[in-house]
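Researcher: Going back to the complex we discussed earlier. I've cleaned up the inputs and rechecked each line, so this should be the final set. Can you rerun the prediction on the complete assembly and write out the structure?
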Amino acid sequence: MKTQRIDPQTADLIVRDALGELHIPARRAFLRGAVTLGGLSMLTGCSISDEPSIESMLMKVSRFNDKVQAWMFDPKRLAPTYSASMITRPFPFNAFYGENKAPRVDAESFRLDVSGKVADKHAWSLAELQALPQTEQITRHICIEGWSAIGRWGGVPFADFLRLVGADLSAKYVGFKCADDYYTSIDMPTALHPQTLMALSFDGKTLPVRHGFPLKLRMPTKLAYKNPKHVQAIFVTNSYPGGYWEDQGYNWFGGS
Amino acid sequence: MEQLISSGQEAKHGGVIHPAWLRIMHWVNALAVLILVGSGWTIYNASPLFGFEFPREITLGGWLAGGIQWHFAAMWLLGINGVLYLLINVFSGRLARRFFPLSAGALFADIGSALRGHLSHADLRRYNMVQKASYLFVMLVSVLLVLSGLVLMQSVQFPLLREFLGGYETARYIHFFAMAALVGFVIVHVAMALLVPRSLLAMVRGR
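Model: Rerun complete. Updated structure for the full complex:
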């Protein structure tokens, strides 16, 4: 065993690793470097896993894949919609915490904070959001884990909202901060996609706590981790905001 | 490049069985498959389709994000290498020459002799019918893996392909069973190569 020198980057990874373990123990192995390439590491007598260069190479490919997905993304192409009889019941709960830990946001005092490159920065009450024209869709929700479920979401088309608040539509990103400390961000073309909704309802009823009360951003063109629940703040920006899972290695664009 | 690709002349080039481009592509593909299968098993384990998981020791990536990063990096390797392989094979005439015509009778006869341990590999320049059929099979399986993979990765952006493969959920099963077929091929292929070490040597040094 050779002694390991710890550079700041590694130290940062270790700290993030320790924090992340609270959520998902298996990820420890990734950073510890338990990437055993089947028998290959045995054959070559070295572990490819301890190579920070490999991790950074993979991250670069992931960034390249972001660009490819942005290039492939057709702002007019719609995700398939389904009939009400195809809705998945019960619709699964999924988060980085258990269902009983889902945050309880008070409907009365809730204010949606809107900031960054927007003209109108006033904070929105739930009643104000509910008063905006609404639409509904039944679409497939695809998790990065592979499973999918069909659900019915209703709410305000996000493009309408962004135009209403005078957002700079040429900005690169829209970021989200949530009541459960989750955060993520999306590209502007997806934000303006006709099926991207500020969902206030689920299956015809007020959005339940388990599915993100009071507000979830719903995009059938992106994987589920890109669809934040319990959204409290929306900001328009040109500086890359990252995301909870994205910062740990999930692909940022996350198209589905 | 002309010389590299003119595999039709391989017998005249001092007994070269596999031209250099083919050997390089073979091993690039082998590496890509190893990475894709190992990381694919990590992704499978995140939400198993069936009542089992792959043992962690034989998976790649450590956890879901790692598995996906490996998978979506090696897919380029497999995809670009595979497309080039098919293009060179089709346009050089190698595909027609080495893999066709197929004959069901000859296939069963060769399977019979293979099971009795009498299958001839006397001339490694000529594929026997079992080889022809199984190499064509694995090409088709790989194409299916790539197509179903595209649906899993970007189902909204490939509407025709998605519907052709029966939708997102069906594509998951297709991707899984195509993987199983590919792994089955690799096991038999490696076993055969070890039984006839000359064939392994030929894929390394060309003769």
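Model: Worth noting: Residues 12-205 of chain B form a domain with the Fumarate Reductase Cytochrome B subunit fold (CATH 1.20.950.20).
Researcher: Good, that matches what I expected from the previous run.
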